[in-house]
């Protein structure tokens, strides 16, 4: 069910509002096509518009996809500026990319900057720097020395590497335990790398590498483990990586990894309620509060939702504003859009999580 009214959606169409991208589509009776609300084509008249939440609904209604905005294709993969750079980055993950490299590929740096900010919430150079840090992280997780990780990550000085690393996790690499109780490693995803912290039986944290709250969440776990957090992975790390791969490639939406939920009783209750929301479904904060039997606790529910530290698996991204608009998401609103768009495909294929 579309939560926003027609006037709101038509205004979003006129403004090419990116907050509805992948969540609502417009079907145009005069042309027989359906588009993203961000489509650059000339805007249709009000009387010719019908709005649906899924691609499947548009096709079932007899409309064909627009060739300009390609609503059946993830936007980033359809962008001719983005695709070659992503492929180049994966081919040389430890390379120190600069603007002259972009120019040598025949691309305009300002165009690239805008495209990556629109699709990923960060520039290509920021993504490349993050990718180099991942390489260093992997070296540490495999038992390598800090100096080896620094070289692998392409940092010229130890201090620059320590500073960049500490900015992500809140502590320098040399302070990690050699005899850990919890193990930290990164896992890949199409929406950017995530940090996974596990023990031998449970997942304690799963967060996007660029989430601002990650250092604070890491410090909290550091206290829980009495400082015994080290680099490395367990069978649980491998399990959640496999489940995420299947989730993103559309093979399976089932997460069976056992979760360790760190929070107050109320906060954990909110997270468990989030786990009940099916893929393709959404809730508002007020709906969550009512389902918990605490209709007056809307703000507390919102705070608990924002404190979630197991991204994707505990689906805080499925909570929208009361009017159906996107609201704050620690991983970035662009990721929230992509996750909802992906999960709508599960829903339309009747393959629920």
TrEMBL record:
Residues the record lists as binding Zn(2+): 35, 39, 66, 69
Keywords recorded for this protein, A-Z: Activator, DNA damage, DNA repair, Metal-binding, Methyltransferase, Transferase, Zinc
CDD domains (alphabetical): ATase
Positions of the HTH araC/xylS-type domain: 105-179
Record GO biological process: DNA repair; methylation
Cofactor: Zn(2+)
Record-linked Gene3D superfamilies: DNA Methylphosphotriester Repair Domain, Homeodomain-like, Methylated DNA-protein cysteine methyltransferase domain, Winged helix-like DNA-binding domain superfamily/Winged helix DNA-binding domain
Active site: 35 (nucleophile), 316 (nucleophile)
EC number from the UniProt entry: 2.1.1.63
InterPro entries assigned: Ada-like_dom_sf (IPR035451), Ada_DNA_repair_Zn-bd (IPR004026), Bifunct_regulatory_prot_Ada (IPR016221), HTH_AraC (IPR018060), MethylDNA_cys_MeTrfase_AS (IPR001497), MethylDNA_cys_MeTrfase_DNA-bd (IPR014048), MethylDNA_cys_MeTrfase_DNAb (IPR036217), MGMT_N_sf (IPR036631)
Binding note for cofactor: Binds 1 zinc ion per subunit.
Reactions the enzyme catalyzes: a 6-O-methyl-2'-deoxyguanosine in DNA + L-cysteinyl-[protein] = S-methyl-L-cysteinyl-[protein] + a 2'-deoxyguanosine in DNA; a 4-O-methyl-thymidine in DNA + L-cysteinyl-[protein] = a thymidine in DNA + S-methyl-L-cysteinyl-[protein]
Enzyme kind, highest EC tier: transferase
Name of this protein: methylated-DNA--[protein]-cysteine S-methyltransferase
Organism from which the protein derives: Roseibium album
Lineage: Bacteria, Pseudomonadati, Pseudomonadota, Alphaproteobacteria, Hyphomicrobiales
Gene transcribed to yield this protein: ada_2
């Amino acid at each position: 069910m579309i939560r926003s009214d027609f006037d709101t959606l038509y205004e979003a169409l006129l403004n090419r509002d990116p907050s509805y991208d992948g969540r609502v589509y417009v079907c145009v009776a005069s042309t027989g096509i359906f588009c993203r609300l961000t489509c650059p084509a000339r805007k249709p008249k009000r009387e010719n518009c019908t709005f649906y939440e899924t691609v499947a609904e548009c096709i079932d209604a007899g409309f064909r996809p627009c060739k300009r905005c390609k609503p059946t294709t993830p936007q980033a993969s359809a962008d001719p500026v983005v695709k070659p750079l992503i492929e180049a980055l994966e081919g040389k993950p430890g390379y120190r990319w600069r603007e002259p490299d972009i120019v040598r590929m025949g691309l305009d740096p300002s165009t690239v900057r805008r495209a990556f900010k629109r699709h990923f919430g960060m520039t290509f150079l920021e993504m490349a720097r993050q990718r180099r840090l991942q390489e260093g992280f992997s070296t540490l997780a495999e038992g390598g020395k800090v100096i080896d990780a620094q070289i692998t990550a392409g940092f010229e000085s130890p201090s620059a590497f320590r500073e960049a690393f500490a900015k992500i996790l809140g502590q320098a690499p040399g302070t990690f335990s050699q005899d850990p109780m919890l193990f930290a490693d990164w896992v890949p995803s199409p929406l950017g790398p995530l940090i996974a912290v596990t023990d031998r039986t449970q997942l304690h944290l799963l967060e996007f590498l660029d989430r601002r709250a990650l250092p604070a969440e890491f410090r909290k776990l550091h206290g829980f483990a009495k400082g015994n957090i080290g680099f490395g992975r367990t069978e649980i790390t491998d399990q959640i990586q496999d489940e995420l791969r299947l989730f993103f490639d559309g093979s399976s939406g089932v997460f069976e990894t056992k979760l360790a939920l760190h929070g107050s009783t109320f906060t954990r209750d909110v997270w468990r309620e989030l786990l009940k929301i099916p893929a393709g479904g959404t809730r508002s904060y007020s709906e969550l509060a009512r389902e918990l039997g605490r209709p007056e606790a809307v703000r507390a529910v919102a705070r608990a939702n924002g404190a979630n530290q197991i991204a994707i698996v505990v689906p805080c991204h499925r909570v929208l504003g009361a009017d159906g608009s996107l609201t704050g998401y620690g991983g970035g609103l662009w990721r929230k859009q992509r996750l909802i768009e992906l999960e709508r495909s599960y829903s339309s294929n009747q393959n629920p999580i």
